Amino acid sequence: MNRQIANRRIIFPAFFCALVLSAAVAQEVPVVKPETVGLSPERLERIAGTVQRSIDEKRIAGAVTLVARRGHVAWFKAQGMADREAGKPMRPDTMFRICSMTKPITSAAVMMLYEEGHFLLDDPVSKYLPEFKNPKVLVKPASGAPYTIPATHEITIRDLLRHTSGITYHWNEDLGPMYKDANVASGLLPYDGTIEDSTKRLAGLPLLFNPGEKFEYSLGVDVLGRLVEVLSGKPLDEFFRTRIFEPLGMKDTYFYPPDGKLERLATAYTYYDEKGLNRFPDTPITEGAFTYSADYPARGPKKLFSGGAGLVSTATDYARFCQMMLDGGKVGSTRLLSRKSVELMTQDQLGKISPDQGFGLGFGVNGVKAPLSELGSPGEYNWGGFFYTAFSIDPKEQMIVIFMGQLHPAGDLTLDRQVNELAYQAIID
To answer: Where exactly are the structural domains of the chain?
Structure first.
């Protein structure tokens, strides 16, 4: 699954240095001629046309798209509005709520500690977070009240990384109400507590199934964020800053952006068929037991460092993280991860647990369980975020694609996937 990295030791530092230097000039990232990296400039322009059509049809306010190949940015464009009502245009350095695109960064942090010998992947997490000892599983009989039984297995660190822990999210109809009543943080609301507070509350609640039995997207990565804090002795935001963001030059990635940068945060929007595109309301939206807002990066106590959903970033900052993964864990002369760890993280870890879903340690993996459904390469790894952001990393084609919007719900809009497809159809080598 790992990208072939021959001939990249010279190219990547140039790409990285250009991105770092660009921070001082509003992230005006140098874009090479696409044909020099095997991409058609005319075909890449189809990205702009497709994005603009969605803007014109008022399906999205604006977006930033980026395509990098062979260590160089070949396409980078901001379109539409960051704040439609204020007339504020989308800029290359606009900041976005990346939500679940936080998960791969937390997973990388976990693997960095793994490489330092702190644990093995199949260690029970209760070895380090004892509140998770002796988990119980919820049983809902056909008649009568639900009850719990002891789980057959402890939750392992691998389970948390690949979403087989039995933990879920607030939107689950069985456990969601329990999460809400116990004041477990989702990461998408201002929260008066820390990740330690939330994970301890989560640990006291039953699981959806026995660990290792199924794939269920979950708050498990928030538990991993707490694990990073315990093993490193640092708050998660400090670990991210000193061990990942500063080495990568990610100067615009935060849980809570400083006041001086908040004006760069894009406005979030909603889209409903009957209402169209509208600015996200000032009050949270509630869907069953799940409640979410768009103001959590700027308001509230700002004590929760949600490893599963909490970060704000830019397209170029996230490109730095993607390039590190693409280059086998290395940035310039600095290595964050072993090439072997990157290989492990980007291989399917689910096997027979999920016959359709390919998922590694922090990343979805395409084309390993079934034929590709759209343009791409087997082994391409990716993920997205709640407010309509997405990325993909393709080792075979040496390509990164990033889409940044701010929209939820998005209706039936498929723009994020179309941008990925349009990047692939631009390959001409």
So the answer is: 11-98+305-424
